[in-house]
């Protein structure tokens, strides 16, 4: 590796890449896996979380050197990128309708409602087991939404009945 390539590798070693450390249930001598999230395939194993993380710099240097030798771009860390906060998202009309009704029900803008739902989903994903990304359980979500809708209708019916009783007794 040339001096220029070594300097470039050292530059990447100083960047704040995100490292995910997970325990695999393999039961071998190195059950801990550390991976750099932005660099696919850049991962190492260790006997403890600290051991796995300590091996990351060598794996990162090797990954960067290989990518450069093959002419591949090396992604920057996520924190180093500039995100605008804007996102154009296409969705089905039925989902758009459901989200719009939810926003109306909560008396917030559609944008605020979707942000709230995404933030909640992200929080739940962080709490989930990091070895696997959770797969959305759409049947469970639809069941929950149906129950919530029925509960709203029942509450509205009870309130309407109380209003009618109050009007009749007042008149």
A few lines on this structure:
This protein has helices at 3-13, 49-54, 56-69, 93-106, 110-127, 138-170; strands at residues 19-23, 32-36, 43-46. It is mainly alpha-helical and 171 residues long.
Please give the structural blueprint.
Elements (H helix, E strand, L loop, with lengths): L2 H11 L5 E5 L8 E5 L6 E4 L2 H6 L1 H14 L23 H14 L3 H18 L10 H33 L1
Antiparallel strand pairs: 1-2, 2-3
Characterise this structure.
This protein has six helices and three strands. Helix 1 packs across helix 3 and helix 4 crosses helix 5. Strand 2 and strand 3 form a beta hairpin. It folds into three domains: 78 residues, Double Stranded RNA Binding Domain (2-Layer Sandwich), CATH 3.30.160.250; 51 residues; 34 residues. With 171 residues, the protein is mainly alpha-helical. Strands 1-2-3 form a three-stranded antiparallel β-sheet.
Q: Indicate the percent of residues in helices.
A: 55-70%
Major β-sheet strand ordering: 1-2-3
- Outline, from the CA principal axes? elongated
The number of domains = 3
**What is the number of beta strands?**
3
Order of helices and strands: HEEEHHHHH
SS-based structural class? mainly alpha
Features:
mainly alpha, three-stranded antiparallel β-sheet, 3 strands, 171 residues, Double Stranded RNA Binding Domain, 3 domains
């Amino acid at each position: 590796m040339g001096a220029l390539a070594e300097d470039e590798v050292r530059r990447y070693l100083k960047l704040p890449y995100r490292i995910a450390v997970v325990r695999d249930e393999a039961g071998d001598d190195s059950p801990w896996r550390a991976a750099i999230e932005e660099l696919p395939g850049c991962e190492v194993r260790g006997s403890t979380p600290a051991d796995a993380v300590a091996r990351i710099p060598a794996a990162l240097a090797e990954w960067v050197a290989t990518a450069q030798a093959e002419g591949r771009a090396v992604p920057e860390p996520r924190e180093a990128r500039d995100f605008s906060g804007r996102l154009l998202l296409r969705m089905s009309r039925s989902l758009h309708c459901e989200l719009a009704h939810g926003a109306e029900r909560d008396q917030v803008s559609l944008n605020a409602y979707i942000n709230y739902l995404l933030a909640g989903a992200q929080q739940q994903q962080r709490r989930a087991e990091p070895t696997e990304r959770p797969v959305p359980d759409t049947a469970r979500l639809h069941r929950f939404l149906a129950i919530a809708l029925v509960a709203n209708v029942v509450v509205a019916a009870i309130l309407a009945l109380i209003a009618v009783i109050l009007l009749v007794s007042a008149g």
